[in-house]
């Protein structure tokens, strides 16, 4: 089974649980899409490769996993707020989670190289939370 297929099965299981268990009078569900990978090849796995936003996303503004999330929540009766950060993060080469790439010696770029990317994700979430109150 491919990873995208397994991910979709997991999301469908999660969506079924949300439909059965979430009380919308008490709970609001948020789901963040995935940050894009900016690695071009093994030898270029460095975060200090740029200090300004990328001008072209080069296809990194799309993700099979983010598209799967959007598809999975589309027909739910429970409202899901999707924090779709994939396109926004595609323009920042530090907008990836390096710590989880299988080599712990490579830093988690989205938290250590430059401030901004996760901070912006948090600002988006905060704006949604404030609009609910």
Automatic annotation (TrEMBL):
Domain Trichome birefringence-like C-terminal, residue spans: 1-127
Signal sequence region: none
GO molecular function terms noted in the UniProt entry: O-acetyltransferase activity
Protein family (similarity comment): Belongs to the PC-esterase family. TBL subfamily.
Protein name in UniProt: Trichome birefringence-like C-terminal domain-containing protein
Origin species: Populus trichocarpa (Western balsam poplar)
